[in-house]
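Ligand-bound model needed. iron/sulfur cluster.
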Amino acid sequence: MSVEVGGREGLSKGEFNRLVSSGRLISVGSSSRDLRPILVGEGVSTKVNANVGTSTGKCDLKLEVAKAEAAVSAGADAIMDLSVGGDLDKVRRTLLKKIPIPLGTVPVYQVYFESKFDMNLDSILNVIERQARDGVDFMTIHAGITQSFLKSMRKRIIPITSRGGGFIASWMLKHGRENPLYTGFDQILEVLKEYGVCLSLGDALRPGAIADAHDDCQIGELKILGKLTERAWSAGVQVMVEGPGHVPIHMIEQDVVLQKKICHGAPYYVLGPLVTDIGLGHDHITSAIGGAIAASAGADFLCYVTPSEHLGLPDIEDVRQGVVASKIAAHAGDIAKYGDMEKDIEMSRARRKLDWEKMFDQALDPQIAKKYSCLTSKKECSMCGEYCVLKLLEEDK
Ligand code: SF4
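Prediction:
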């Protein structure tokens, strides 16, 4: 397996082998497709995932491909296809063809879409194998929600916010049976192992309201995920563990420390976290705040959130904004984690010289930087104009 070079990914071979063999670092994208795997976990830069996918109300394959392409050009490291509308095989296969970065799925979406309440282990294994054969690189499996949580989750403000977790919970409630992803976990692992697919252990009970954070449901499920992590490792499957959700700022560091402890150092893939519930319309910001703090505390992979979160299916611009917000959060986290501030220093040097081209080069979002740029004829910006402090300092020399 090749080690990415440059920057944070330039691990020595010994360090790389040590981290991979301990499960603290995984290589996502080792499928049959011709793409460069990304490294997720300890010792490497924090990665960003962007979700795309059709819904039952809006099913436009071209639009979803355009969104995925926008996410790639904005710097996303991975894409998840969360489609639940139209021809799901066609959407996934098209994305796999068009997208040059690792692609993840949540197979239970397709199982539920095709079988509804007739879902069983056979239909689950069938979809997982079909998706794996197509070349999907990582899959979210919500194996940690069990019958024991179905009563206690009702005490929450929002009992369940995970869509995959919701499908499984409603099936379990209807049939009064245990989660088939849990009871059939070893068979699922066999398929993932055969096709080299990374397992992403879904947190069906992630809090969907900050007041629910770190309740018995979240922590109880996390303990199960810790045990499932060890089973995945024993089966030779690479694994990362998904996390919240909605978490107030003062609990984020504790959240990351807890996951790393309970899940034995497995990479942590957080969905946000959103630090307040009232940012409606700006949840790319609430999640970027949480993502930066989580990354600085050791989270390894950030799932983006767009401004349309909780409101509707994102459009292309929402996707772009969501990726940029998460990239800023990931980079801010890496500055704290590793002291990775070379680009920031370059930016500041360019700023001191009023070297605008270089500033645009260093910007995480050059497109928006150029859009806002308003320069006077003397090359300072219109903010302070002739009182530009950087010019005044130069003139003082
Ligand atoms: S004009 Fe003001 S804001 Fe603009 S570059 Fe100079 S000091 Fe900075």
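The chain has a mean pLDDT of 94.
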